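To whoever is on call:

I kicked off a structure prediction for a single chain this morning and the downstream step that reads the tokens threw a length-mismatch warning. I double-checked the sequence; it's 204 residues and nothing unusual in it as far as I can see. Pasting both halves so you can look.
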Amino acid sequence: MSNINKQKSGNDTIVIKDKLNGLVTITTEDLSKRDLTNSFIYKICPDGKILNVHEENKIDEKLEKASVKNPREILIEKSIKGGFEKISDDLTDLELVRILEFSEREIVKNNDSRMVLFSVETTNSGDLKVILLMYNGSKSEMTIDKFPFKLKDAKDKVITVGLIDINKTISPSKIAICEVQIEKALLNEQEVDLTTWTVTFEME
């Protein structure tokens, strides 16, 4: 045992193996009752701190459990890191993936605020579902209630024109996802061709 250093501390004996660069075994010896099963494996960190490997494993297990997330949770975390405000539960996972990819291409984060149209589609009931991305490039909170909106379909027909309700408050340097539902009864044309479309933020 010439290569083993012993250090006494009260009733404990600490045996350090491998010259502070391997494992440290700490065995507790009670003077009235010897219990050699009460031993722990310790690891010496590069900074010299001694860490109980058993506790380290427990921490790793907690982190591993915490990291087991469903795809939806991972997407939401990624969107928040990407600068988005709260994500609506109405968005599907596929829509969220596409929005994230789209925002990385289309939204330049600087001191300018802007609105970008992401998609226009017809719902099963014949209504229009419009998704807009709004970026607040200012240093203060921005609130938008209504916005002018004019939509033409692939046949150049004006489908809808007027003010649409946004009703969003956006934090500085954040992106808000705005979902707008336009009822079928409010559309100028009932037969809509959205293979291509044109949107301008203007009134007639």
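Update from on-call: the warning came from a stale cache, not from the record. Cleared it. Sanity check on the structure: The CA atoms of residues 153 and 192 lie 7 Å apart.
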